[in-house]
Amino acid sequence: MPRVVVDVVLKPEISDPQGQAVLGALGRLGHDSVRGVRQGKHFVLDVEGTPDEAELTQIAETLLANPVIEDVELHLPKG
Question: What is the pLDDT of residues 38-66, one digit of tens each?
């Protein structure tokens, strides 16, 4: 059964307080090489048959994300 991964993150222009908190904690722990953190959501969808990219995009943009403030990235199975 094909597995599709959907990653949802806040758009770059949207403030990300959780990402900023993680970045601050990383600095306090001595991980100074990390320059930015954006938090998001990760969904794994098991689909029957051949994944339909248009359908999955519609699902992601209408149910899994708020397209006004979030970007969606689909990771379809290769092959």
Answer: 999 999 999 999 999 999 999 999 999 99
**At residue 44, what is the residue type?**
V
Q: Does domain 3-75 have CATH number 2.60.40.420?
A: no
Beta-bridge mates of residue 10: 70
| pLDDT band, very low/low/confident/very high, at 78 (cuts 50, 70, 90) | confident
Kindly report whether the global pTM for this prediction surpasses the value 0.90: no
* Whole-Å CA distances, 22 to 5, 12, 38, 70, 75: 24, 16, 9, 19, 25
What are the structural domain ranges in the chain? Answer: 3-75
DSSP, collapsed to helix, strand or coil, labels residue 24 as: helix
Other Cβ atoms closer than 10 A to 33: 6
